[in-house]
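Give me C-alpha cells for this 267-residue protein.
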Amino acid sequence: MLIAAYSCNKEANDDVDVSNSTFEAEASVYSDELEKSADAVTFNKDMNVNGPNGPNGMGCLPECATVSVDYPDGGTYPRVITIDYGEENCQVRPNLYKRGKIIITLTDSIINVGAQRLVTFDSFYINDNLVSGSRSLTNMGENEDSYITFDIDNDISIGNWTRQTTGSKIWIEGFDTMEFEDNIFLLTGSSSSTRPGGLVIDRTIIEALRVDRSCGYITEGIVSIQRGDEVSSIDFGDGSCDNLATIYRDGQEFEIELDGFRCRRRH
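Here you go.
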C-alpha cells in the first residue's frame, strides 16, 4: 500500500492537503523506473550484435538482475527479453526495490520506424507494490525538429491504484551513440489515475519532463494535478540532477524528496 503521500501531508502542513501531489510524484518516479528498466535493454545500437547482456544493457541494471532473450519465431525478431530481479527484493537505489520479472516484446529494433515494444509483468513488485497491466511504445519516426518520437500508451496498476497514460517520448540526445547513459528524452502527454474508493486524479504535463539517463531522477518539467476543483502542480527542477521537486498548492510551496517521498513546507 502506498502511504508516503499521507505521511508527507502530515509532515508538511495540517491545513494544506498535498497528498494528491505527492501521490503523483511517487507515481511518476515508479513509472519512470519501469521505463528505465525496459530502456536499459532496448535502446542499444549494438543490441543485434551483443544481445541484451552487452555493455549497454546490463551496465544500467543492478547486479541482482539477470537478463535473458528468446526468439519465438526463430528469427531476429520478434524478440522477447526478460529482466528477472529475483524472488527477493533487489535494491536499485536507496528506498527503491524490485522483484519479479519484466517481460519485453520487440517487433523490430526499437530504433526503426514502426517498431513496437510491449512491456508486461510476471509477479513483479516495486517497493512491495504489485505491478500489472501493459506499457506500449511505438516508433513514429522523426518529428518536425528531426527528433525520433515514440507514441506512449500505458495501462497499468501499481499496488492499489491504476493509471492510463497517453503521450509522446521524444529522443533529443544520444540517438547516434551506443551508450545508454547519454540518452535524454522529453515526455509529454496526460494520464488519469484511480485511487482506492474511486478517487480520480488527472495529470497533464504542461512543460515537458526531461529524463536524463545519466541521472536517476526526472530533472526538469512541470506537471499539473487536478482532482475535481482541486489543482496543484509539481516542478521537477531546472535540469540539475537531484532528488528534489517542488509542489505548489494554494499559494504555498513544499519541497519533496524523490527518495522516500518526504516533504516540508518552504518558508
